[in-house]
Amino acid sequence: MVVINEEKCIGCGKCATDCISGTIRIREGKAKARQGCLLCGHCLAVCPADAVQIEEYEDTVRTYNSSSFDISEENMLNAIMFRRSIRNYTDKKIGKEQLEKLIMAGSHTATAKNRQEIGYIFVQDHLDQLKEQVFQGLGRLIEEQPEHPEIKTLKRFYKGRKSRPEEEMLFRNAPAVLYLTGDHLIDGGLAAQNIELMAASMGMGVLFNGYLTRITEILPEVKEFLKAEDKNILICMLVGYPAVRYERTAPRKHPEVTVL
What we know:
The chain is of the alpha+beta class. It is 37% helix and 14% strand.
């Protein structure tokens, strides 16, 4: 719940004005929080007196500083334009600190009604076991369900399982796989995009792998291996350090834009 330190509160009303659920009111010159709060944190973020705390959250709040927070519009646009889907990786592992930053980028993404319901499953140390589960499951599915609507694609991946790592088409020699779980695809997509941008800033890259997402969902043994039997796999990302260097942005066609 939101806790307001009345000794610090100066009654400026900024928290009440910015409260999206209307649960904060100014009474007798002090902010008061009522029931029904979404715990969005806007009150804490906007308070000039640092008078607000939210007991449910554990991460460290950072105070705005222009030198470490601001990104120029040109640099931001260049970073977005320069991102590439990575299909060839080095064998360099992702460290604990790097993983924590990726997850933090995802967990601080906007979610509808502040659900914060996106979960993360990171596979690196046991990636070989995941691959074994996936390809065994594909083999079984191909044999038992020859009329499965995706059988042609599944056969292609299954046949390529013994290819050289850089030529295998499903895992594409990535050193790690990151799954996002939840009930709302939009929330998952937004979190995944922030993770990709964060990864790029650390010299890494990702590939959004829709095939592996679908395969994981239809193979119960794979979900069991991931300890995700009761979870919805929203997005799968291959993650690692690129084995290719890009020198410039790639061109795009002009989108259709309507201005009213």
